[in-house]
Every structure is written in C-alpha cells, then in structure tokens.
Design a protein that fits this description.
This protein has a domain at 2-144 and 176-202: Rossmann fold (3-Layer(aba) Sandwich). 44% of the residues lie in helices and 18% in strands. The protein has helices spanning 13-22, 37-42, 55-62, 81-99, 121-131, 154-160, 178-189, 208-218, 231-240, 245-260, 265-270, 280-290, and strands at 2-5, 26-31, 46-49, 67-70, 103-109, 137-143, 145-146, 163-165, 173-176, 196-201, 204-206, 226-228. α1 (13-22) runs parallel beside α7, α3 runs parallel beside α4 (81-99) and α4 runs parallel beside α5 (121-131).
Amino acid sequence: MKIIVTGSLGNIGKPLTTKLVAAGHDVTVISSNADRKTAIENLGAKTAVGSVSDAAFLLETLKGADAIFAMTPPNLGGANVIANTENAGKSFAKAIEEAQVKRVVMLSSIGAHLPNGTGPIAGLHKIEEIYKELNTSVTFLRAGFFFTNFFNDVPMIQGAGIIGSNYPSDIKIPFVHPVDIAQAVAEELQHTPAGKNIRYIISDVRTPGDAAKVLGAAIAKPELPWVEFTDEQALGGMTQAGIPEEIAKLYAEMGTGLRSGKIIEHFLSSNASVDGKIKLEDFAKEFASKF
C-alpha cells in the first residue's frame, strides 16, 4: 500500500513509520521541516515537505495514495486555535476527496463527541463532523490523554514539590502512550472497514492520585501530592509559565470538562476495551529517566 503519514517524526510518527516500512508499505511522511528529510529517509520512507493546512500541497502529496494517517498539529500558532484546527481539517478533507483516498485514520480524542466545553478537543469534534461527509472509509481514533504530557509538569514538581491541575485526584482518566497509538494506527491503516467507525485507543485508566503516587515513587519523591487547583489558579499558572492566554484558557476549560465527567462519559458508556500495552508503571520508568 501507498500510505501517507502526517505528524513528521514525532512521538507517534516515528514508531508508526518504522512499523509500516517494516511491513513492506510505500510510506511518505509529511513534515513542515525540511531538516527532517534525512531522518525520514533513513527509516526507509519518502518525505513531502509542506503544511497540512495547504490543500494544494496535500492534494499533490495524496495523489495515488491508498491510505492516510491524518493528524492535526496541536495549537496551530497559538491563536484562533479552534478555527485553525477546523480549517486544517477542511484542507485534509478536500485533498482526500479529490485524490480519492480509500482509507483515512484520523487521530481524535476522548471527548470529541461533544461540540464544546472541552477546550482544544472541540476542534477535533469539528474535524470528525467534516470527515463524516467523506465518501471513504474513516476511523476516528479517539486517544486518551497522553502520558507524555506529564513531562510538562516537571518544572512544577522540581520547583514546588507538587503536581496538579484543575480537577481532583480521584477521577478516572483514560491515558495513552504514543507508542500504543502508533500500533493502533498501523493496524487500522492496513484494513478498510466500511463507512465511519470509532475506535478508542487507551493504555490505562487511572486517577491523577495514582499518577502522583506512581510517578513520585519513580523519581524518589514518594510523598508527591496531587493538588487540585481552582480554574483561576490553573489559568494563572499556565500564563505565568509563558503559555499563550488563548491556549491556557482552552486547557483550563478541558480541565473543567474532566472534572465534570463529561469528557470521558462516552468512553465509559461505550465499554471500549483498553488495548494499549504501556501502563502507568511502565511510563513512570520513562518519566524518571528524563526527570
């Protein structure tokens, strides 16, 4: 198969490309950075340098492709995030339709069943709605919260001796490791079910309290507490750390959605399986090695 991979050689793109090349597929990796060309080609794939928001570039790249892994870059500039996410989805959809790509696997998220009140996830809801109109096989791969996002909390742990956000320590959160996402994407790209399908990819379902305990033990801070912030405290902390205000507000809103339970309600009610292999304790070793 001729397969297009977006996301360059990120935490998902690199293991995914490696798996697909090893399986004998003709793989082209889209990257906005020309400096990645050598690294991509060293994996046995081809490189297409350009922006996923450029429909003309995407169309040229997708010509003759059998399948695409469509991932919208996070943040998209730090302003007008939801609108930019939706526009990138429209560019993808236009190119997919015109190139007549038969198989699409889209990286989505838990909470994408909701149109609003979910922070940045709302942009993925909009893309799902756009892709539902495509005349092709589409799987919406709804991922849990990335374990690797805990790396963003290292300064807080080192500086204040705490970890936390604007939701409590005892709620259930579906987590996922990018390597498990790559495995699920590889599986989905290599078969073509009819119509539109939703698959959740989750590695572990744990509480923030579990995360504090397990990660704390791994970095020799067994008493590391999970602290629930108010929405205002969470927003202020992110902006003080240099996160653009629009993005900080979106992430604070996502925390509110987690606290209310609405972001994970569809996952819990669907009785979806937990397919990922990398559990919190496994990630804790990775976290400690980079702490």
